[in-house]
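Figure 3 (text version): structure tokens given as input.
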């Protein structure tokens, strides 16, 4: 009578040999699944961090454009002061010491 490994399908003459093969195959499969989960998580983290940095760059670009427009408007009309626009540029610094 032959006993076949449930994972790899190799035939063995005794149950003990088959069980040993199944144990090794199970450990190998568990390690592969863990590596797959780990690599998937790293890819997701990289993707999410890239999105965050892209949005932060857009925000910084918009902040620079707003600052330029405010300076040009102030030069042209002389209405704004730095103190009046401070809450728009750094709204949370009033509440949190960043």
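Below: residues designed for each position.
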């Amino acid at each position: 009578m032959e006993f076949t490994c449930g994972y790899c399908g190799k035939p063995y003459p005794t149950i003990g040999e088959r069980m040993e093969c199944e144990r090794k195959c199970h450990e190998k499969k568990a390690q592969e699944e863990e590596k797959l989960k780990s690599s998937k998580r790293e890819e997701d983290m990289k993707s999410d961090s890239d999105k965050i940095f892209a949005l932060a760059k857009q925000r910084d670009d918009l902040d620079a454009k707003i600052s330029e427009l405010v300076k040009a408007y102030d030069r042209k009309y002389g209405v704004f002061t730095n103190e009046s626009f401070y809450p728009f540029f750094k709204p949370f610094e009033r509440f949190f010491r960043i």
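The longest strand covers residues 3-4.
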